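Lab channel / #folding
Pinned by the channel admin:
"Please post every new chain as: sequence first, then the structure tokens as a reply. Keep commentary short and put observations after the output so the thread stays searchable."

First post following the new format, from NK:
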Amino acid sequence: MYINEDKNIHKIYLSDINYIESYREYIKINTGKKSYLTKTAISKIEVKLKNNGFERIHKSYIISTNKISSFNSRFVTVVGKQLPIGRTYKHSLMETLKYAGDLL
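Reply from TO:
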């Protein structure tokens, strides 16, 4: 995926993305190496990433489901950062995680 940041175009591999955080009309894409800030709505990026191993968990967060280290009914931990699960997204996330692996 290519994003525009500070008049530069950056190539970001989907496998490098840990999570995406919304800041009103901007999003911050967090990779292990760097964070990128670009002007776009989180809803636009959500549509592009939906079937690529990403899940919206809150009005302000999209996560890579492959990077989850733990979760409970209120929070998801992605690469050491605890992110909230919004009530609107909770059921969908739990269903995705249930079918992604053997949830015991």
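NK: The beta strands are 2-5, 8-11, 17-23, 26-31, 35-39, 54-58, 61-64, 68-71, 75-78, 81-84.
TO: also worth noting, The chain has one domain: 2-100.
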